[in-house]
Write a structure and sequence with these properties.
Blueprint (H helix, E strand, L loop, with lengths): L4 E5 L2 E5 L20 E3 L12 H4 L23 E3 L4 H6 L1 H24 L3 H17 L10 H11 L5 H13 L4 H15 L5 H6 L2 H11 L6 H15 L5 H6 L2 H19 L6 H15 L3 H9 L2 H11 L4 H14 L3 H8 L4 H11 L4 H14 L4 H9 L3 H17 L12 H16 L5 H6 L2 H13 L2 H19 L7 H4 L1 H12 L4 H14 L3 H9 L2 H8 L5 H15 L13 H12 L4 H14 L6 H5 L1 H16 L10 H28 L13
Antiparallel strand pairs: 1-2, 3-4
GO biological process, one term: sperm axoneme assembly
InterPro entries: ARM-like (IPR011989), ARM-type_fold (IPR016024), Armadillo (IPR000225), ARMC2 (IPR038905)
Protein name: Armadillo repeat-containing protein 2 isoform X3
């Protein structure tokens, strides 16, 4: 069976080259020193440089093609001398005698078969038989006297060029607990095979993952750093295949990798220096973790073994290694998309300074910066403590401002992307940056200072000036949301308040768009700004009020709420209350109360306040609201006051208690007063105003 042939093993077709002739060639040179013998080392890869995939993060979606199918036997090692004391041999006399019987009756015949076999499929099957026999005879590990003979026979077979056979051989060799360069060469062999995705099924069928994890669990990191590098490199490759994910989680891969990270961190703290190839090893570890955290079980394990603080430490110690930092940013980007992981990272108070340092150091490295800003957006989305921690870091706002300016300039001079529906790289950073600004502006200490910051507000307005929803929808919406949050603060030195009329002009183009999210954010800004008399005049002069009334018909709960807030603020001015008569405003408000009142006390409260302001000084409810709407209001308000608030079953008990409390304290008093007015035509309250923040 000389030359090329195709054989089928376990249902998989394999192409083999030079399958015969090499099975019995290349006798190994042995050296003896009165004791056990191990294979001596030679490099599998000529030279000292590492493969590109182990030097950097690489393209996670691709693998580099293997230079050759397998290393040749000439690249594998010769027997390594290992002295054993005479006393130790005497202690094992009984065990050796029992092993000799098993060796001669079970193992030797299999070795003879391996030496004479000329068919790849049969050789593979014989290797499997050998593995089972060694397990049965308890002959695995590094204490077995005949181990060197086994290794000699196994190494002869590597040159065959079969990936399947090489994996079977590597599995046995690793089970024999080879060390030092022997271990390194076997890890290199598996790594070379794993570089081709077509071999994933072979690796899985042979359970190579368990062998590799055994190496990481039992061998010394400092002694075998390079072997670990190739070992984790293989695991990184196969972790990109979803078929391996559950197996990796079950076998504790994440915990093993987390322990390696901890060891490397402690080594630096103890010795003050990094292990050789530690940066390359961390690239492989973090790239693997990035794939693993797609699993809910892996995310849970991350929290249980304190992976997040250890990754923060790595970021601090390896801040000059962009590949390591980028992989960690990728991990955090995924983890912070989940509430419990996001909370855990937010509680690592030093993470904010680390992220700011990365932004300053790699400001123009878009692939890293965009992820860091995304992480900050996640951390500050629903956590007021995170907003405070971040804003208290020295230079935090200035760093964001500098980043904003940098990417705004890049955006101005960048060509439009080939796919107009997708944001450019510069726009992507700005999208995530404006989200961070919007989030931290919610904090009562940060918001007013941002509203008074000329540079921040100037960049936000410039963005609205230069971008349309068609250009970059998400950036325009995030920018408008940031302006909305800043417009909440009625402070004397607010740039937002100084430029309120100009902002109102800019928002008109959003109102006339067909984008509901853009319309919603614009209406929210008007809700805050309409507390000002000049803005109310602007609204009426530009017929914005008619648009707000029309929005009540959309049956979109958030839009109705925000539009009602604007109308409420208009009714504070008795001269503008008449606008509610236009476009059937009263009827639409009553319809909103009927549709949303039973489940949304906040919207119901706004409607009642608006109707209260509108009906001030009225002498006849029917003349004010109309007979039909008056009767509807009497029925609705009476029923609301007699019933409890209907809440979503998904709410937790604390949230239910919150809504019930405000239903009783805020909605019911206003509803009762309005009901009394309708029934008796008397006035009880002063006109009310609202901020829709």
């Amino acid at each position: 069976m000389m030359g090329d042939l195709t054989v089928k093993t376990n249902g998989i077709y394999l192409t083999e080259s030079n399958a015969i002739g090499s099975l019995k060639s290349h006798p190994l040179q042995l050296t003896y020193d009165g004791g056990f013998r191990e294979i001596k080392e030679q490099a599998l890869f000529r030279g000292t440089s590492l493969p590109p995939h182990l030097k950097n993060g690489g393209d996670q979606g691709k693998r580099w093609a293997r230079a050759s199918s397998c290393p040749s036997v000439s690249d594998l090692s010769r027997l390594e001398t290992k002295a054993v004391s005479k006393a130790n041999l005497q202690e094992k006399d009984t065990e050796i005698e029992i092993d000799e019987v098993f060796w001669n009756t079970r193992i030797v015949p299999i070795l003879h078969e391996l030496e004479k076999e000329e068919n790849i499929e049969t050789v593979c099957a014989t290797c499997t038989e050998l593995q089972h026999a060694l397990e049965e005879g308890n002959m695995l590990g590094n204490k077995f006297k005949r181990r060197s003979i086994l290794l000699k026979t196994l190494y002869k077979l590597v040159d065959v060029g079969s990936d399947l056979l090489s994996l079977k051989l590597a599995k046995i060799i690793l089970a024999l607990k080879v060390s030092r360069k022997n271990l390194l060469n076997v890890c290199k062999l598996i790594f070379k095979i794993s570089r081709s995705e077509k071999n994933d099924s072979l690796i899985q069928n042979e359970n190579i993952l368990e062998s590799l994890l055994g190496v990481l669990r039992s061998e010394d990191l400092q002694t075998n750093t390079e072997a670990f590098l190739y070992c984790v490199g293989t695991i990184k490759f196969i972790s990109g295949n979803p078929r391996f994910l559950d197996e990796m989680i079950i076998k504790g891969t994440l915990g093993i990798l987390a322990h390696l990270i901890k060891q490397m961190n402690e080594n630096i703290k103890t010795c003050g220096t990094c292990l050789p190839n530690s940066g390359h090893l961390l690239v492989q570890i973090t790239a693997t973790l990035r794939n693993l955290v797609d699993s809910p079980q892996a995310r849970s394990q991350c929290l249980s073994v304190d992976t997040l603080p250890q990754l923060c430490t790595v970021t601090e110690l390896y801040v000059d290694d962009k590949d390591v930092c980028t992989n960690i940013a990728r991990i955090f980007s995924k983890l912070t998309s989940y509430r419990n992981c996001c909370t855990a990272l937010a509680n690592c108070s030093r993470c904010y300074a680390l992220f700011l340092n990365l932004i300053n150091k790699y400001q123009k490295k878009q692939d890293l910066v965009v992820r860091i800003v995304f992480i900050l957006g996640n951390l500050t989305a629903k956590n007021n403590q995170a907003r405070e921690h971040f804003s208290k870091e020295k230079g935090s706002i200035q760093t964001l401002l500098s980043l904003f300016q940098t990417y705004h300039q890049l955006d101005l001079h960048s060509p439009r992307p080939a796919w107009p529906s997708l944001p450019s790289e510069a726009e992507d950073v700005l999208i995530k940056l404006t989200r961070v600004l919007a989030n931290i502006a919610i904090h009562p200490r940060v918001g007013p200072s941002l509203a008074a910051n000329q540079a921040v507000v100037g960049l936000l307005l410039t963005t609205l000036e230069s971008k349309s929803l068609d250009d970059c929808e998400e950036l325009v919406i995030n920018t408008t949301a940031t302006i909305n949050n800043l417009s909440f603060y009625q402070v004397k030195n607010s740039i937002i308040q100084d430029k309120k009329l100009y902002i109102a002009e800019l928002l008109l183009k959003l109102l006339v768009s067909k984008n509901m999210d853009g319309i919603l954010e614009a209406v929210r800004v008007f809700g805050n700004l309409s507390q000002d008399h000049d803005i109310c005049d602007f609204i009426v002069q530009n017929n914005v009020h008619n648009f707000m009334i029309a929005l009540l018909d959309t049956k979109h709960q958030d839009l109705c709420f925000s539009a009602c807030g604007v109308l409420l603020n208009l009714t504070v001015d008795k001269h503008k209350r008449v606008v509610l008569k236009e476009g059937g405003g009263i009827k639409k408000l009553v319809d909103c109360l009927r549709d949303f009142g039973p489940t949304d006390w906040q919207l119901a409260c706004l409607v009642c306040k608006t109707l209260w302001n509108f009906s001030e000084n009225t002498t006849s409810a029917s003349a004010c609201f109309g007979d039909e709407d008056t009767n509807t209001l009497l029925v609705l308000l009476s029923s609301f006051l007699d019933e409890e608030l209907a809440l979503d079953s998904s709410f937790d008990q604390d949230l239910k208690n919150y809504h019930k409390l405000h239903w009783e304290r805020e909605f019911k008093p206003v509803a009762q007063q309005l009901l009394n007015r309708i029934q008796s035509h008397h006035t009880f309250l002063e006109p009310l105003a609202i901020s829709s923040f």
